[in-house]
From TrEMBL:
Pfam families: MarR (PF01047). Keywords: DNA-binding, Transcription, Transcription regulation. Residues 11-145 form the HTH marR-type domain. This is MarR family transcriptional regulator. It comes from Lentzea aerocolonigenes (Lechevalieria aerocolonigenes).
Amino acid sequence: MVTVTRFSGPDDSPGFLLWRVTLAWQRAMRAALAPHDLTHVQFVLLASLWWLVGHSGPPSQQRLAEQAGTDPMMTSQVLRKLADRGLISREVDPADSRARLLDLTAEGKALVAKAMKDVEDADAAYFAGLGDEQQAFVRGLTRLL
């Protein structure tokens, strides 16, 4: 028995199209970040950390994971690697000895600034095909979240 679907085929399925667009966009991000020796997750955590520090001071690892939408355990592992590279500092929170407060080092700030420009350029190039529809696209994504 053949199951009837709501879509005439993959090119009519929003989920499948989102999957394909996501993969293509991720390739563009990997290419933009390769010269900086950063994975996309590392960049997202560094950029989120940069934003949080600038707006509310050094966050905990938990707060950073919430901001970035990443798994706390994975976040902790990635942060250890970034700390080993000298890009971030992880200090014990004076209010909670179990928590770590995060900050960017001078090297981390310089790297995130360079990588941010390349990521923003790659984003602009990737989404240029949307033209005037880009803001509506962003609003639609925001509603889905």
